[in-house]
Amino acid sequence: YPSEFLMQKITEDNQIPVHLHVSVSLQYVAGLKGNALVEFFHGNIAEVENEELRHLMWSSVLFYKTPNVEVMACVLLSTKAIYFLLDDSFIHADEHQSDFWNKENSDCENSSFHLSCCFVLKLNDLQSVNVGLFDQYFRITGHSADHIVTCLTRDSYNTHTFMQQLMAVLSLLARTPSPEPVDKDFYSEFGSKNTGKMENYELIHSSRVKFIYPNEEEIGDLAFLVAEKMDGLTNLQSLNILLYVLAFQVNHVEGSAQNTSSLQPKTLILTSSDLFLFDEDYISYPLPEFAKEPPKRDKYRLADGRRIRDLDRVLMGYQTYPQALTFVFDDVHNQDLMQNLTLDHFGE
């Protein structure tokens, strides 16, 4: 152990996305190759001697307790647990853990010793995995609010690969078999279904972990929400969502020493007539079973919306992935210009 193919695959996957900045400690991890990476895992991260590293992925992550802090993480999947090796900026951003970290490691602040914290979710504690629309992200749910993490891969291939690897390691778990199902009578079988809401597609794995995929209704709900934001000018039947993608909006920081830009996570939705940017809550929906009250914010909040017919030009950057796009719109303050001209001319 491990095979040459696995070593090569993990080494290839060990690359930080170029547009995201990480701490020195995670840059060190990203510089490891082959055997050095496996030895690092067993020496510093693995909790059990005989567990095997099966998959590595770099992704932005969100925690249920800190839904506003998106942090870069190296996600390591082994035969026993999922490890999230976190950027040390998270330690200072997370109020729940800051006291613990600062008290324990205050002497390391100014030394050349760089610290990362590691969040561990044991596979035995895993209850469900919710896959987001178009495989742009997925949420892993354990048995409490501390054990809910969303990985914002922004990439359907990475999501799909992780799901395959996770199902493979879950198949190795020895769990007690589920009790035999009780024969249901007619009323209990059909009475509980009368909620008026279609359930999402569920795949219950042999390890009893649920894999939940979105159904067509989620797109329908999204189309309805988008139509509302368009002030009902469009017939809902003719409204098609052509593209849903998790992206970043680039905000240039003025007056900084370097020409830096901050990246604001946004959900981009393109219809046949409009382009929208939404602030989406990726961690709170669907509600976990233990949630006592609904989340404080809606799943989708409109950040910006423009009509395609006002689009003047699209500027494309020449760099490789991720591609930078600049949309330039005509600066028309009064969108329905012709309609109002007519009213002014013929009105009283």
UniProtKB/TrEMBL annotation:
Domain named Nischarin C-terminal PH: residues: 241-347
Keyword match Cytoplasm: yes
InterPro entries hit by this protein: PH_domain-containing_M2 (IPR053015), PH_NISCH_C (IPR057714), PH_PLEKHM2 (IPR057288)
GO molecular function: kinesin binding
Residue span(s) of domain PLEKHM2 PH: 114-178
GO cellular component, one term: endosome membrane
Protein name: NISCH protein
The encoding gene: Nisch_1
UniProt source species: Ciccaba nigrolineata
Pfam families: PH_NISCH_C, PH_PLEKHM2
GO biological process: Golgi organization; lysosome localization; regulation of protein localization
